[in-house]
Amino acid sequence: MSEPTIADKFLRSAARRGYATAPVKTARLPPGIPYIVGNEAAERFSFYGMNAILTAFMAHNLLDAKGKAAPMSGSDAVAYSSLFVSAVYFTPFLGAVVSDAFLGKFRTVVILSIVYCFGHLALALNATRVGLFVGLSLIALGAGGIKPCVSSNVGDQFGESNQHLMARVFGWFYFAINFGAFLSQLWIPVLLRDYGPHLAFGVPGILMLAATIIFWLGRRKFVHVPPSGNTILNDALSREGRGIIGRLAVLYIFCAVFWSLYYQTTSAWVLQADNMDRHWLGHNWISSQLQAINSILILVFIPLFSYVIYPAAGRLFDLTPLRKISIGFFLTVPSFWITAWVEKQISLGIHPNIFWQFMAYVFITAAEILVSITGLEFSYTQAPRKMKSFIMALYFGSITLGTFFTYLVNKFNAHDGRHYLEGADYYLFFTWLMLAASVLFIFVALKFKTQTIIQEESPAPPA
Asked: Is the pTM of this model over 0.90?
């Protein structure tokens, strides 16, 4: 008698607990979606709240072992903020392998969410470089590790019968991300300013604990797709697997350029705002709060694009996922051209109003809608059934590549005390880089052959 496989053991365990292991044939919305959306809103509050103040914390509030002020330089703060984001989007590979091969998505998310909570705790208790390193390391492992599992878990809830609802739910999923981000990006910088880093990092930790509980409560509502065991390696190395990974990897290289620019809204743009006139709309804004512009615009843009722009554009031409991404790349270019202009004015001694950063956010947020939401759904539908988390991790790896590139540019730029890309030239460098990538992507997208692969359904339960 052969030894039971990991999948066999998982199925037996799921049967004892009453877990569904395949989507039910139905045209309705899957019952687990509210728990996924609620979890994502709370988790993204915790991450974006922490990340909103990270660069400012390193540049202004960091302490040494004796409790004395020991802040980083602006260039180092941007560089290490980019390195942290790079790490967050590298660890999805670990979460994907553990999930797809051994534990399944649910258990992987719960375990790594607990690690995530301890990372917030370390930041809240210790404002030195030791606390920073420990806290960010645990958050990078937890936040990154759960990302491909949570994202692909959205797609796992759907079968062929309700596949038409998937794009809409990914939109809601992204809406939840930015609803949580909007609230935290407004509130957490105020906590840092008025009460210091302990409370400012502690509150996101409490929200991460809430996110973990919400996800756990949905355990009997989710579809728990069994892990495939060691066969994941064989699937990845098969002819089909290599072909899919190779085709998608080429696309993700171009996405990396986009992410290199996008994530500077949480670092370089924050430091630029320090030198701008921040009185706008009758309010004096904290530099770190301006990231909330991105989130509020997304809350407006998601329904606008879904119900107005996409249908209107669809009547003019076939608006495929790759065309959406291509348009998003081009929209990113003017966002950095605006910030280059702002930096030029700052260098001349005029302090431009943050309205100009708002305009830059309009362009880069529209680009995010087209690139990021589309990229999540596209990555899921192109992935083989047993490699959903792995392919999602590959997509998140483009963020690692892009933000690590930003880290390298900033470290090289500050080498030996010299700045090779000074002021506006820094932003223009990324502007021209994005424009070149946008043009080249057109030719790559034209040759890409798409497919749609979703989970197989189980029969509908008796009425």
From this structure: no
CA 440 to CA 434: how far, in whole Å?
10
**How many whole angstroms separate alpha carbon 24 and alpha carbon 463?**
13
Measuring CA to CA, which residue among 26, 24, 23 is closest to residue 162? 26
CA–CA distance, 228 with 454 (Å, rounded to integer): 16
Residues 6+ apart with CB under 8 A from 67: none
Terminal Cα-to-Cα distance of the chain (whole angstroms): 38
The C-alpha atoms of residue 287 and residue 103 are separated, in whole angstroms, by 42
Partners of 283 in the β-ladder: 280
Report CA torsion sign: 210, 216, 220, 225. positive
**Residues 225, 149, 438, 369: what is their CA dihedral angle, to the nearest 10 degrees?**
100
Q: Tokens 């290289």 label which residue?
A: 253
Q: Can you tell me the distance from the alpha carbon of 103 to that of 232, in angstroms, rounded to the nearest whole number?
A: 13
Helix axes of 374-382 and 239-262: crossing angle, nearest 10 degrees: 170
Residues in Cβ contact with 107 at an 8 Å cutoff, skipping those fewer than 6 apart: none
| pLDDT, tens digit, 9 for 90 and up, residues 49-94 | 999 899 889 988 888 888 888 888 877 888 888 889 888 888 888 8
Separation of CA 42 from chain center: 14
Q: What is the mean pLDDT of residues 299-319?
A: 91
- Residue type at 135 in one-letter notation: G
Burial of residue 315, with CB atoms counted within 10 A of its CB: 0-12 exposed, 13-18 middle, 19 or more buried: exposed
Question: Which secondary structure element, helix H or strand E, spans residue 16, and what is its range?
Answer: helix 6-17
Burial grade of 443 (CB within 10 A; 0-12, 13-18, 19 or more): exposed
Rounded to whole angstroms, what are the CA distances from 233 to 76, 98, 150?
A: 39, 12, 21
Please check whether residue 61 is in contact with residue 71, taking contact to mean a CB–CB distance below 8 angstroms: yes
Domain boundaries, the chain: 33-446
Measured CA to CA in angstroms, residue 350 lies from 217, 275, 421 at distances of 54, 9, 20
Which helix (H) or strand (E) is 278 found in, with range? none
φ/ψ region of 67 (left if φ > 0, alpha if ψ in -120 to 50, else beta) reads: left
Q: What's the one-letter identity of residue 303?
A: P
Strand, helix or coil for residue 419: coil
What's the pLDDT score for residue 463?
41
Task: Please check whether the domain covering 33-446 is classified as CATH 1.10.10.60.
Answer: no
Q: How many degrees, rounded to 5, is the angle at CA 224 between CA 218 and CA 225?
A: 155
Q: How many CB atoms lie within 10 A of CB 8?
A: 13
